[in-house]
Amino acid sequence: MTHVLIIGSGISGMACAVRCAERGLRVTLASPFPSERSQSVMAAGGINAVLPEGEPGDSVASHIEDTLKGGCDLGGERAVTGLCEHGGEILRYLERIGTVFSVDKQGRPLRRAFGGQSHKRTYYCGASTGKQIVSALVMEARRFEAAGLIERRLWCCFHSALIRDGVCHGALLFDEARGGLEAVTADAVVIATGGQNALFGKTTGSTQCDGYAAGKLFMQGAELKNLEFIQYHPTTLQTPQKRMLISEAARGEGGRLFVKENGHNVYFMEEKYGPGGNLMTRDVISREIDALGCDVFLDISFLGKDVIDQRLPEVRDLCAKYAGIDVTREPIPVQPSVHFFMGGLAVHLNHETNLRNLFAVGECASMYHGANRLGGNSLLAAIYSGHVAADEIAGRKEEAPTHPDFSGELEREKARLAESRDTQSQFPVMYLRDMLAETMQKRLGIVRDEANLTKGLEDIDYYLSIAGRLNYDASVMPYFNYSLTAILTLARATVTCALSRRESRGAHWRSDFPETDEAYRAATIIKYDGGKYSVRLDEERAYES
User: Fold this and answer.
1) SS3 197
2) Residue spans of alpha helices (H) in 396-525
3) CA neighbours closer than 13 Å in the CB half-sphere of residue 192
4) Which of 59, 68, 84, 383 has the lowest tally of Cβ within 10 angstroms?
C-alpha cells in the first residue's frame, strides 16, 4: 500500500489526508500541534462557490474571470478554471461531513459580498468558517484513524526532505518525545505548512507558520514562485501580541471605511471608487490607507445590534476583548497588516514540485492567486489543492519505489544537533528572528523601492553571516536552532524576487516602477544552488501547463 507523509494538519493537510484515506492509501499526518491550533481556524470570512441557487446572473465563468482579474492575470487560466469549477462540489462535500453554514429562515445557505467579486458567492459560518471546516475534517480524519488508514503524529516538526537524484523518499522529523530526529520514508511527501508569517513578526497569522519548510526545501533544490506577492489585509486591529484580523465580512455586510477631517467623517474609498469602494481588492484598499498616513476607522455600528450579533459576533467579541470597543456604538481603528502569501513552493497542476514525489498544497504552494488573492478563495484552494494532490498520488500506477538507505544522513544530522546543544550563544536565536521581522516589515512593506529592498538584502546577508557562526543556546528547543538559516534564506529569496520585478502589479507595488509592464506578465521562479539565488520569469507558465 502506498504510504503518504503529510507535513501540516491544517485544512489543506487534512483535506489531502482524508482524500488519500478514501482512496485506500496509508497516511502519516505529522504536525507540531493539533489541527485545532492550526492557522486554519483563524479563517473568518467564508468560502467561495457558485451554486445553482446562488445569486441570479452569477456563474462559474464569472468566478473564473474575477479570480484571474484579481490576480492580475498571473493565476494561470487552467489552474483557476479547475479551482472555480469545483467550488460547488466542495461546498456540498463540506456540508456532508458536518460543516454548519449560516442559513436563512428557509434553511438556504447565506452568502455575503467579498472584495473584487462581481457577485455574492462567499458562503460562511458566521465569522468562524475556518473553525467549522477544521472541526468537520478532524472528525473525518479520526474516522479513518480508527480504520488504521491515518496515523496522526503530534508534537513533531519537519527537519528536511530525504532526496536522492531529484526524487523525494520521505523526511527527517524532529520528535523529542520519540528521542529526537527520525527518518520516515514515504512514497510521497505532501507539504501543507502554510505561509511564512514569522518572517514578518506580528501579522494576522500564526507564528507557527514560519516558512521554514519552504526555505529548507528551497535549499534542497525545490523551486519557489512569486514570493514578492504578499497580501496586506487592510483592516486589522493592533494589539501588543499580534494584529487581530477584522474580517472582510465586516465590509461585506456593509461596513464603511473613513477618516476624520475637521470634525467630519470622510468615506475616502467611496469618494474615490464609488458605492463599491469598501469592497475593492485588498491590495488597492491597503495602498489607499497607507497613502493617507493618518488614523483610519471602520464603522459597522449602523448595521444594528441584531445584524452584528447574528452575522459578525466574532468581530464584536474580538474588539470588545482586545480593545474595549463596543462596535454597536463605536468605530474600529484599523490598519493594514501582512495577511497572506500568494508565493510559495512552485507546483505543477497536480501540485507536485520540481522534485519527484514531493507535493505542496494550501498556502505554502503558489498556484491559484497570482498577484493578489480574492477573499474566500483561500479556503476553496486549501481543500481543492489537497484533493488534487491526493488524487494524483492515488492514480499513479507505478510500483512503489525502493527507498535508499538514509541512515548516514540521519546520524550526521543527529551529531550536528547534539553538538549545537552543548554551547551557548551570545545572540539568542529569537533575537535574530526579531531583527529579521523588523527588516522585512520595514523593507518589504505595502510600497517598495530599490533602495529599501537593497538595504533589506544587506541586512539579511548580515544575519546569515551571524547564523553561520553562532553557538546556539542549549535552552532553546532544537527546532528554533536548526530552523534559523533556512528561514533567513527564504527571506533573502523573497527580497530578491521583489527586486527582480521592476513593475507594479497586484500586491507588489514599486514606487520607482509604478506602472504595470507586460514584459513582467509571468511568474517569478527562483532557484537556490550552493548559496546562489537565480531568478527567471516563466512566461510559458510551465508549472501550470
Assistant:
1) helix
2) 407-421, 429-443, 450-467, 478-500
3) 37
4) 59
Catalytic residue, from 111, 282, 311, 505: name it.
282
Residue located via cell numbers 523573497: 494
What is the 8-class DSSP label of residue 7? E
pTM: 0.95
Active site residue 282: yes
The H helix count followed by the E strand count for the chain is 16, 22
Q: Does the CA dihedral 143-145-147-150 come out positive or negative?
A: positive
Residues comprising the chain, all counted: 545
Residue 63, all three cell numbers:
468566478
Q: For residue 53, what are the contacts with CB-CB under 8 A and spacing of at least 6?
A: 108
The pLDDT tens digits for 82-94 are: 999 999 999 999 9
**Grid coordinates of 227:** 514570493
Amino acid at residue number 259: V
* pLDDT tens per residue across span 161-197: 999 999 999 999 998 778 789 999 999 999 999 999 9
- Low pLDDT (below 70) residues in the chain: 1, 398-401, 420-427, 471-478, 540-545
Grid coordinates given for 263: 470634525
Distance CA 429, CA 467 (A): 8
Secondary structure (3-state) at 361: coil
